[in-house]
Amino acid sequence: MISQKATILCVYEILKKYSDENHILSAETVKEKLKAIYDVDMERRAIYRNIEALRGMGIDIEGYQDNREGYYLIDRQFEPSEIRLLCDAVAASDIIKEETSKEVIAKLINTQSVFQGRMLQKTVYVKNREKVLNKQLFYNIDTLNIAINQGCKISVSLLEYNLEMELEEAEGGAIVISPYATMWASGNYYLLAKQENTDDLTHYRIDHLKDISILERGVDMVFGGINPTQYAERFILQNGEYIERYDIECEKDLWNELAEKFGNSLTVIRTQKDRISVKIKCIPSVMREWILAHCDKCEVIGPRHFRDDIQKAVMEAYKKYW
């Protein structure tokens, strides 16, 4: 039996689950649902009082004085469009296994009314493909964040793939590292850290860590400080390469592909009848991959050292296949 003091929560849950701007509830409907769902008998005046009390707590509820129809909950943590975006991101994530994806999506959809939830369920899906292999990912993140907040070193074993594409413990046993930050980059979670008795910062895939133990030893200080964003940009997203500027001339029918690939890092220099010249800022490996894939329609104008490298690579490819 629900206590009288808790019935206000029942009213709120009914408004949260069964009302939105397209599904307005009368006081009589709220009363019927209270009885059917919670076995609570409540007079209309008590319903009015509870709704006013919810409003007094800062919950935005539209009522008769606004629409002449009834009540519905305006104030929600997320808009349906935001929930759709979050659900799609969870469904597409390679680091969340399918079962967990479904559980998280269900929780997100549950923040909406049942009617909005039904529409979301028609469009949200989880791809049936293999997800992250290490089930300890989220436990690892929690443990690492505790160690980081406490400023403690950790002992950890590293995992690596064997020839059967299974993660197994790397040779050498556990290592001791100083953890500084957890980061999301290039589709994976990473730990920015420094191994004990070394000087350089490094990073580890968090789903490739095992048996993390927090030690009662303070982390090593890093001279000059740490900027996780700059580190991830340079050593994870750019694979340790420096960004360079390239002058490219290509056929105009490649323009949309160029714009899609390089976006704001691309600047048009000049256009001719059938060709276009552009400047592109990116790392060498990305540009090398692009040029080799379109070498019949593109020409590298500069820098000269890169142009010479591409010409050698193209000649070697032709020798290999002809």
Structural commentary:
This protein is α+β, with helices and mostly antiparallel strands and 322 residues long. The chain folds into four domains: 4-73, Arc Repressor Mutant, subunit A (Orthogonal Bundle), CATH 1.10.10; 80-123; 138-237, no CATH class; 244-321, Alpha-Beta Plaits, CATH 3.30.70. 42% of the residues lie in helices and 24% in strands. It has twelve helices and twelve strands. The strands form three sheets. Strands 3, 4, 5, 6, 7 and 8 form a six-stranded antiparallel β-sheet that branches. A four-stranded antiparallel β-sheet has the order 10-11-9-12. β5 (175-185) and β6 form a beta hairpin.
Features:
322 residues; alpha+beta; Arc Repressor Mutant, subunit A; six-stranded antiparallel beta sheet; four-stranded antiparallel beta sheet; 12 helices; 24% strand
Give a short synopsis of this structure.
This protein has 322 residues and is an alpha+beta fold. It contains twelve helices and twelve strands. The longest helix is centred in the last third of the chain and has 18 residues.
